[in-house]
Hints:
Blueprint (H helix, E strand, L loop, with lengths): L9 E2 L5 E2 L2 E7 L8 E8 L4 E2 L2 E3 L3 E7 L1 E6 L4 E5 L3 E4 L5 E4 L6 E8 L8 E3 L5 H4 L2
Amino acid sequence: MNIEPQGPTVKNPPEQFAGDVWLDVIAAPHEADQRMTVATVRFAPGARTAWHSHARGQYLRITQGTAGFGGREGNIIEVRTGETLYTPPGEDRFHAAPADGFMEHIAMLESADGPAATTVWLEHVTDAELGR
C-alpha cells in the first residue's frame, strides 16, 4: 500500500485551454503496464478546452457546476453536478464552464501505447462554436 502525496496544482497551458483552468492529479501510473490517470480539473467562468480527443476515451464526473460539452456535429450538451459523461475513443470534443460560474470535473482516462497519442490537441474552440 502507498499513500500518495498531494502534488502541486498546475495551471493548464494556453495552447490547449482558453481562460483559467487548473489541474490536480489524483492518480497516475506507477508501473509500466498501468494506464489509468485521474485528475480534478477546475475551470474559471467562461474557460474551455481546445478541440481534442483521447485515444482510449474518457470519463468526466462533474463535481461542481454545469459543464458544456460540444462535438463536431455542433451539438452542445449540459452535464450537471453528480453526472458522468463518457466520450468514446477518438471523438473530437470540447468542454467548457458557463460564462457565469465555475465548473469542476474529475477526468479519468487510460494512456495510449505511445504517450503523445493519449490526447490529441487540435485548434481552439471559437465563440460561435461555443454558442456565445
